[in-house]
Amino acid sequence: MHDQRQVTEARLERAVVQRIAPAVHTRSLPVEVAAWPAPGEPVPIEEGLGATYGEFAVGQAWGPPWSTTWFRLRGEVPADWAGREVEVVFDLGTDARNVGFQAEGLVYTPAGEPVKSINPLSTWIPVPAGTTTFEFFVEAAANPDVLGGGGRAFDPSPMGDVLTAPRDPLYVLARADLCVRDVEVAELLSDLEVLGGLMLELPLEDARRYELLRGIDLALDALDPHDVAGSAARTRAVLAPLFAAKARASAHRVSAVGHAHIDSAWLWPLRETVRKVARTAANVTQLMDVHPSFVYAMSSAQQFAWIAEHRPEVHEKVKRRIAEGRFVPVGSMWVESDTNMVGSEAMVRQFLEGKGYFAREYGIDTEEAWLPDSFGYSAALPQIMKLAGVRWFLTQKISWNTDNKFPHHTFDWEGIDGTRIFTHFPPVDTYNSELSAKELAHAARNYQEKGRAEWSLVPFGWGDGGGGPTREMLSRADRLGDLEGSTRVSLHSPREFFTTAEQDYPDRPVWSGELYLELHRGTYTSQAKTKQGNRRNEHLLREAELWATTASVRHGAEYPAARLQELWRTVLLHQFHDILPGSSIAWVHREAAATHARVSAELEGIVATSLATVAGEGTTALVANPTPHPRTGVPALGLGVAEPSAAVVNFTSDGPDTVLDNGVLRVRVDAAGNVTSVLDLAADREVLLPGTHAGLLQLHRDTPNKWDAWDVDAHYRHVVRDLVEADSVELHADEGEGASVVVTRSTGASTLVQTVRLPRGESRIAYTLDVDWHEREAMLKAAFGLDVHADRSASEIQFGHVFRATHENTSWDAARFEICAHRWLHVAEAGYGVAVTNSATYGHDVTRSVVADGRPGTTVRLSLLRAPLSPDPETDQGRHVLEYSLVVGADIADAVREGYRQNLPERVVTGAGPVAPLVAVDVPGVVVEAVKLAEDGSGDVVVRLYESLGARERARLTWGFPVASVSEVDLLERPREEGVTSVQDGGASVSLRPFQILTLRLARA
What are the tens digits of pLDDT across the range 526-552? Predict the structure, then answer.
């Protein structure tokens, strides 16, 4: 037989695009359009509905960037259209190839009831049956395409802030018509899309491909191109036998879950996300009215809270569908947060606030963590999730790896403490699926568990304001339930998928350790002020809760629970995976800086008020120590009189060099202000490799191939300039603090003032870098060349640390050329180690070094600042003050202690006298992470501990107030079966596994 395959395929494509799709809407009549450009920011719905509208026409420009235009649509339905499906087609002038990144609208009735949203691929508005006249209002947002997806992506753009965007209109109204929707033609279109798409995905050797080809060819013969509507039914009849063939027994099975991944901020500000969520929710509830088996999953308690607060009329519809089990809250978290940089307690609070909200508002205990788009996943997460009552974890992002394909799609993920959690990576490799034949075929081919398991999940729907699932996607799902040659598609909830998949694959493989994303490594560094605000407020929240709890328990002061919850939620929101990582537009980060400053000021007020109550009236100078370790004679978590230090710092000249000596370290600084030697006097060893410096500032060219704010590509290392020349060098002696060298350097338009301080009696060098930063596409690092032969580094993560190789033996090792650490990073050889601590830096790199004499060593570098041009062309421009320290002769316990100390400075207050801490632990490796009052308002004290060194420990927790009972609780403060080993004599003995988190509830007597 002659091969006419390509002819038929081309025939099908033209028929669908030029004949059938345009015939879905017939009998078109223009509608009356009027418009009202809202001044400034979005207005309340009542104001938009009641505004004075002016004439407007198709073809007219509208919408300067970030503006809102309200459109009013009016018309009459002709009498002879009665009984037909009638809808308004309203095209705002968007590009259907770039869904979710352009203009969007929410349709209202004159009474203010939401109907559905308008998006590039959902431009229709249903006209209720029996209607003779209609009126709709559309709140249309003129959101710009900041990344330039329709043109040259990642070019610098002023569109990322309303303060810099031009005021010319972005869009031209393309269509406003009343149409009859021919249901039979629409069904034919879906038939051919499904069968034609499936045909193209089947192997050329597969007989089913040719069965579909011949059947489609016959159907196109039956189609009259000049009367599509009149011939649609007979054409579908020709296709019907092709749908009758059932799927193969071995066909891959897919749980299709309706979804719309909506970034809580990214290429739009937070206020626009509120509207994006409302639009999508309105779309989804409208689809549920006409598709009874449709189930939709939405994550992020914050997004539900936004709808409830700002769009209560949409929320009412959502609540009704939640009660039916069709609109499903998922994810268990306040937002889909970053997980690399979020601090320990903040990671807990993501689940506490997220699950707590869903339980209180909807009576639902979510059991899955849903993070499809975050940029890598901390090895602490399995334990945190499990302790929050989470059973399952889902992400898709690891499929973005550039170097190594992850070996599993369904597996158990094991965290640093040994906790395992069922994990699924959808093999469809997208969280915005259209349920196309191409995507489903990819999922089946790509699924790594073939032969062992058969189920995977497909999240389908347009995200980021694209409106979520469409009626076309649901039509595909209806046809793909049991079709030969295709995967078998079922509309499921996430719970239905997870319970089925878990049973389907009992002997799952195990992946131990972090899920490192081999991409977007620049997010550890971009937007330094956002990261500083987050780190500062995480620690201020810890302090505020500690001292407020102490004031409440000891003095009966009112505990500011509502204020603290609101402040926590604000910080948690700004940990969203495009805010904290620094990958949002300028508008987002401008607002984030202001919000973090406001939160800090309020928390400082709570701390000051609480400490005044705790200290009491008096004139004794007291030091408040919020860290979990004693310092300067003041107990952990208490107030005391600091012990004076007898240590001094001597400084002498040695030729052009200056030598600082505090009796612990001897530090040599050359004439240009470079630290060239650090001698550990106790160990009698030089810490630095010959020819290297401690704290050397290095400027790298930073031009990633794409994803500017997100990525650091390995080729940044190829071009580097050491900033070793000084404009000035000054020596300062401070009797209370030690001695310091202040070095001013300049490069390009930037000025860097580096203060190197040797404190009295300490084995650390403290650095403060005050930078006026004006570089472009450059990265600033601080390098420490260490005479330590380390084959791995230890980096702090939540509630512990992970080890990573310093070599590049494998492609997995080599891909980790930029890594994330929280407050400290540690390298060591047997018997000796060095730590680098920081106050708000997350990006690091650690490499093995060999100097001229062949001596091996290790170079540790902190990534301090970047200057990408997209999506914010002014990223990090301006002044920054950064702090970090080199801790010499340190083991990991020292690193843990100094990391807390760097981020929780002591406070000096006056009061009646020393104040013993509420709680204390007798083992240094067991750390008190949080002290707070219980969420239920009972007044019970909740104490969260963790084992920080990776060892088994038995510790004793004591308390300084009457306690009736002690119980172990989970992170939501619910009782756990495991109990405290013994309680007696004002204390409790506890046993902890390596890196175990333990939360205790102390019921007050």
Answer: 999 999 999 999 999 999 999 999 999
